Write a sequence for this structure.
């Protein structure tokens, strides 16, 4: 039997891999390279559109636990990420081109995967399919999904700019990770004093924004996890200073004191030729980005490889439409995966593709599908997006809040994270020990 996988993003590639490694023939469809969405620029699969960070590495963190669970399940995406990691303190960040190249090469060279460059506008009624077309699903397919399965939702997402490393004014910047984590030079910090920050803030909240060309969405939602910096700043003068520009854990070697505010830059590539403006997703017009961000002393002469952009993301009303194994309630042979399901984040998307791929494989054998234990991060997220009691459904990333409470909850945050992680991995190992999933 051949399984269709629609979309060659993170979730689609992970799903295709999980099927193909188990001997299932896969037809992987994607509109690339002949057509791209407004947010995509590369012909490669698994393109990282926003940040190049895959969040925390520590298994005692929610994001780190998610990735460790994926390792236990033989995730292709985590394997590729580990192979092309760049320094990022406590985070797993990647050289995005190398990452996508690794994934693309593996998928295209797998004997069980046939890649078809074609826009899919209809989900077939027959056979087994995994729909992983992402938050930028084409208008035609989005319309089909809406008409066939019910209303879908939309929100707007933003990406941060990338600057040339040699254009950063090092007279006004210093290398250091917060609290000394990492190798010391993982982040390039651009400090500001109180006066500089207030000038920058005033310009930011009054800067001209780019229009959103989405005539079909009159009142678009903006997801909190990728809130444009200018929108976040409007909540109050100190909001971003206590958020993405927080100076806590840093000390400016030139003054010996903690700065009033700090913009952190993170390596975009292993060579360190480009830097990403951490937490600076934006929808300002391009000239405004250069003008306003240039008020940060270290960026006064910055050269931009990519300006920040804002684009529409679409996700389905999963609590009404999906089961916890990522299959449709009305057709258990159709699986959805990725951000279109309402999981938020690169690895969260890949993890849903991983589970959809495994479950599509089990469907080919007419076996019972899997829903991981509620104590695992993957299991809890799958339960959240399929919980009919969730009324105001919004995208959800990995966090300890979705897990059941600990019986003896440590007051110390680090110990609490370690307890959540140990419980999750123990329950995952126990759950998998009698499952024949051909993991190798």
């Amino acid at each position: 039997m051949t399984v269709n996988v629609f979309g060659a993003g993170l979730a689609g590639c992970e799903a295709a891999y999980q099927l193909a490694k188990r001997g299932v023939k896969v037809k992987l469809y994607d509109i690339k390279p002949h057509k791209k969405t407004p947010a995509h620029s590369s012909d490669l699969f698994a393109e990282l559109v926003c940040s190049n960070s895959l969040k925390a590495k520590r298994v005692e963190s929610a994001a780190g636990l998610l990735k460790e669970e994926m390792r236990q399940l033989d995730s292709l995406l985590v394997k590729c990420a580990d192979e092309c990691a760049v320094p990022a303190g406590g985070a797993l960040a990647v050289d995005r081109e190398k990452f996508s190249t690794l994934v693309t090469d593996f998928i295209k060279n797998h004997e069980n995967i046939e890649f078809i460059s074609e826009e899919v506008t209809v989900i077939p009624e027959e056979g087994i399919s995994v729909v992983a077309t992402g938050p930028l699903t084409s208008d035609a397919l989005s319309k089909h999904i809406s008409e066939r399965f019910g209303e879908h939702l939309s929100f707007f997402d933003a990406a941060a700019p990338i600057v040339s490393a040699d254009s950063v004014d090092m007279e006004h910047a210093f290398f250091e990770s917060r609290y000394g984590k990492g190798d010391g030079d993982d982040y390039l910090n651009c400090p500001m004093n109180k006066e500089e920050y207030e000038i920058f803030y005033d310009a930011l909240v009054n800067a001209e924004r780019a229009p959103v060309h989405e005539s079909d969405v009159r009142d678009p939602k903006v997801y909190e996890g990728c809130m444009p910096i200018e929108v976040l700043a409007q909540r109050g003068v100190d909001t971003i200073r206590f958020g993405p520009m927080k100076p806590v854990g840093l000390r400016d070697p030139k003054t010996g004191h903690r700065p009033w505010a700090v913009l952190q830059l993170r390596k975009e590539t292993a060579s360190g030729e480009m830097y990403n403006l951490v937490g600076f997703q934006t929808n300002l017009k391009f000239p405004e980005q250069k003008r306003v961000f240039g008020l940060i002393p270290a960026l006064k002469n910055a050269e931009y490889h990519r300006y920040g952009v804002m684009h529409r993301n679409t996700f389905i009303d999963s609590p009404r439409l999906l089961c916890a194994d990522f299959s449709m309630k009305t057709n258990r042979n159709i699986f959805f995966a990725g951000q279109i399901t309402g999981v938020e984040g690169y690895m969260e998307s890949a993890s849903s593709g991983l589970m959809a791929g495994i479950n599509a494989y089990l469907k080919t054998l007419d076996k019972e599908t899997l829903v991981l234990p509620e104590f695992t991060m993957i299991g809890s997220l799958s339960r959240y997006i399929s919980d009919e009691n969730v009324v105001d459904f919004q995208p959800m990333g990995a966090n300890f809040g979705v897990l059941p409470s600990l019986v003896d909850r440590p007051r110390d945050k680090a110990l609490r994270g370690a307890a959540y992680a140990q419980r999750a991995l123990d329950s995952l190992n126990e759950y998998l020990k009698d499952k024949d999933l051909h993991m190798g």
